[in-house]
Design a protein that fits this description.
- The structure is a single chain.
- By secondary structure, the chain is of the alpha/beta class.
- 34% of the residues lie in helices and 19% in strands.
- It has 18 helices and 25 strands.
- Strands 1, 2, 3, 4, 5, 6, 14, 15, 16, 17, 18 and 19 form a twelve-stranded mixed sheet that branches.
- Helix 12 packs across helix 13.
Length: 558
């Protein structure tokens, strides 16, 4: 039996004009900036005079700790939005934009899969509406203006050894992690050590996703700290007079992108920070727009709940005044068995012992959502044909002991019809009263906040700051940045900072090796373990399988 690939399913789908999709949520052509027939930006300026904005239910989709077996969080997000539409609810899914680094690397795209996809998937996974390029241009303009200032006399007394602003590119390119530039004579700049990050790790990506207006965007850009002077004073984008030009590059990118699912449900795709190196959520503007135009907004946060969901709740919700009405935690029996020690090639075999061990990962995430953050949660099990009745029953039994329901999801194969049970659970849960609280208080010290995340979310013994991190901690306190939230940069493959520790490890500490201020985004980035802000390509990158025919039809995307 042959199966259609994701891209084949997407290319065979009937795609509706974007104006028709916009009408479903009360928008007309005057509210849209068209990028062809099937995608558009929502012109936020045209919506400013809306009366008494509607407030829909906000549903967060997150997941267990990811494994090579796959979890399908984005697929469930999209399928749930379609299922709610089938139940007669006005729904919008609000997701992040894919980065081309993973698209051409190992992870693939981020437009869902099977019959729960956002289309046009080729556009979304490649250049889309140019937001990534705009962010990269704004980031690199600031880098160019910084180096030019030093070249032209260095009136701000910048110490080139203390430049913390890197250039970016939207590609996995390990060759660019550490470079030396400004070589070959005085006319070509001042030689210094430098490096590249991937665009999604840029603070400008975080700023775009957290800004609530064009004015706020410009203010945040002005606050970016790019370097320090010889007497350790911070140098900002405002000191370089760069924020106006950067805002000009981003004035269109700040508008959310409107597309559709395979079933014609409106989808807002905007912003794309990774959750292992950034805060991992789509834009505040996209989420708030969706909440004003739908009864249910299904959004996602990247990687496992210890990363994306924690940052969604402690950073995004805190900054934007948002509160989820319910949380969907996605997992698979396959992935849980892998957390229990089963090899990838043996996952089709029933193994209740390994599953029971691996379930500890799921239960810790559930406990965090329910008892640390005080939110109602349902577990969505993405079904595979090899899952047995006894395995599903074991997952239900263990979740029931925590007072949490389990819904089976088959949206990959059936689209919205495969998510009806989950949708019904979400409707029920979203009517319950929550006791939402943050994992830490902003008045806590930086070290207390680091320990709160490590102990309460990861279940670590605490954090261990390297001498370099302690020196940076003292500087952040001295500069008055101690009341900001924390954005933990950590491996996505474990609750710990060691990707080899699967399941729900205990008796470990988290090593913080670097503390970096993202003053424009409004948080402190804590780099732990060996996490990197510029990924590399795998031995066999996905790019080797991607091609295009003479008539322009793309193949190999997934």
């Amino acid at each position: 039996m042959s199966f259609k690939t994701d891209i084949q399913i997407a290319q065979e789908a009937e795609i509706r004009p974007i104006s028709e999709i916009a009408e479903k949520i009360g928008l007309d052509d005057d509210n849209l900036i068209h990028y062809g027939k099937f995608k558009a930006k929502v012109d936020l300026q045209s919506l400013k005079n809306d009366e008494a904005p509607h407030r829909g239910k906000l549903i967060l989709t997150t997941a267990i700790t990811p494994t090579p077996a796959g979890e399908g969080k984005t697929t469930v997000t999209i399928g749930l939005a379609d299922a709610l539409s089938q139940l007669g609810k006005k729904s919008i899914c609000a997701t992040r934009e894919p980065s081309m680094g993973p698209v051409f690397g190992i992870k693939g795209g981020a437009a869902g899969g099977g019959y729960a996809q956002i289309i046009p998937m080729e556009d979304i996974n490649l250049h889309f509406t140019g937001d990534m390029h705009a962010i990269g241009a704004a980031n690199n303009l600031l880098a160019a203006m910084l180096d030019n200032h030093i070249q032209q006399g260095n009136g701000l007394n910048i110490d080139s050894r203390k430049i913390i602003w890197k250039r970016v590119v939207d590609m996995n390119d390990r060759q660019l992690r550490f470079i030396v530039d400004g070589l070959n004579g005085v006319s070509n700049g001042v030689p210094r050590e430098d490096g590249f990050d991937i665009i999604v790790a840029s603070e400008i990506m975080a700023i775009l996703c957290l800004a609530d207006s064009l004015k706020d965007l410009k203010k945040r850009l002005a606050s970016i700290v790019v370097a320090y002077t010889f007497d350790n004073k911070p140098v900002t984008a405002a000191d370089l007079k760069a924020e106006g030009a950067m805002t000009a590059l981003l004035k269109d990118a700040i508008n959310p992108n409107l597309v559709q699912t395979l079933e014609g449900t409106p989808a807002v795709v905007h912003g794309g920070p990774f959750a292992n190196i950034a805060h991992g959520c789509n834009s505040v503007l996209a989420t708030k727009f969706a909440l004003e135009h739908a009864d249910y907004v299904i959004t996602e946060a990247g990687f496992g709940a210890d990363l994306g969901a924690e940052k969604f709740l402690d950073i995004k919700c805190r900054a934007a005044g948002l509160e989820p009405d319910a949380v969907v935690l996605v997992g698979t029996v396959r992935a849980l068995k892998m957390h229990g020690g089963v090899n990838l090639k043996d996952l089709k075999e029933e193994n209740l012992q390994a599953l029971e061990t691996g379930i500890e990962n799921l239960l810790q995430h559930v406990d965090n959502i329910k008892n640390v953050f005080g939110l109602p949660v349902v577990v969505a099990i993405n079904q595979f044909t090899a899952d047995t009745e006894r395995e599903i029953a074991l997952v239900r039994e263990k979740c029931s002991e925590l007072g949490v329901s389990v819904a089976l999801s088959d949206v990959w194969a059936q689209g919205g019809a495969g998510g009806i049970e989950l949708a019904e659970q979400v409707i029920r849960l979203s009517e319950e009263k929550s006791d939402f609280v943050f994992a830490y208080d902003l008045d806590n010290s930086i070290e207390e906040k680091l320990n709160a995340i490590a102990r309460r979310i990861y279940r670590a013994d605490g954090v261990d700051l390297t001498p370099n991190a302690r020196k940076q901690l003292a500087q952040l306190n001295e500069l008055g940045f101690n009341r900001l939230p924390i954005c933990m940069a950590k491996t996505q493959y474990s609750f710990s900072d060691d990707p080899a520790l699967l399941g729900a490890p205990h008796d470990f500490t988290v090593t913080v090796r670097n503390l970096k201020i993202s003053a424009g985004a409004g948080f402190i980035v804590a780099l732990t373990g060996e996490v990197m802000t510029m990924p590399g390509l795998p031995r066999v990158p996905s790019a080797e399988s991607i091609d295009v025919t003479e008539d322009g039809k793309i193949s190999g995307l997934f």
